[in-house]
Every structure is written in C-alpha cells, then in structure tokens.
User: Fold Ubiquitin-like protein from Cyprinodon variegatus.
Amino acid sequence: PLSHRPFDYGVHLRLILVSGKTQDFTFSPNDSATDIAKHVFDNWPAGWEEEQVSSPSILRLIFQGRFLHGNVTLGALKLPPGRTTVMHLVARETLPEPNSHGQRNREKTTESNCCLLL
Assistant:
C-alpha cells in the first residue's frame, strides 16, 4: 500500500485536460505514472464529469511533450521540490511505440493534440 504523506517532500502536480480544465494534486516522489493515474481516477475532480474515463489504465501523463510510461516515478523526473509541475492528462488506449513510424496514428493524434501546444 502506498503511504501518502502529502507534506513530506510532496511533489505538486497541476494536471491539465485536453478541454483545458485543471486540477492540482500532491504526490510522493516514489509514485509512478500508473499510481498517479489510479489516484486521479479514484479521486476524480468534481468539475471533470464530462471527461470521466472508464478505467485508470487509459489515463496517460504527458510531461514536456513526452508520454510518461507507467513505471516512471516522479522522483526519476528530477522535478523541482516545492514547485508546481504542470502535466497534461489524456485518455489513450496505447502509447506510441518509440521507434514506430505510424503515419496513420500521427494523423489521428494531430487533431486531438492541437490544443495542447498553444
């Protein structure tokens, strides 16, 4: 079981949905992207009803333009302590393969990602 001690070197995340809605959370540096997705899913913010997903397994975090794989911990990202780090939260079934030249996938994601780049 994860022991969440929010004030013990907590990592502050501000998660942004594609719709632009945001919510702040505090995690432990030992929490992985999978842990974060599960926590957000279990504590879905009140204003996010329209974006509710059916399973935490499709929630993905994007940090500095890159998808975080599930086993990456916040501590491994060397985030500045005490500062709020902004990440995007998107629903995707699968992560793009690092070496794949999925032309079809790229065209599909261009539409949904247009709003993240502004």
User: Anything to note?
Assistant: The beta strands are 11-17, 22-27, 59-63, 66-67, 84-91. Residues 100-118 have pLDDT under 50 and may be disordered. The longest strand covers residues 84-91. The chain has one domain: 11-94.
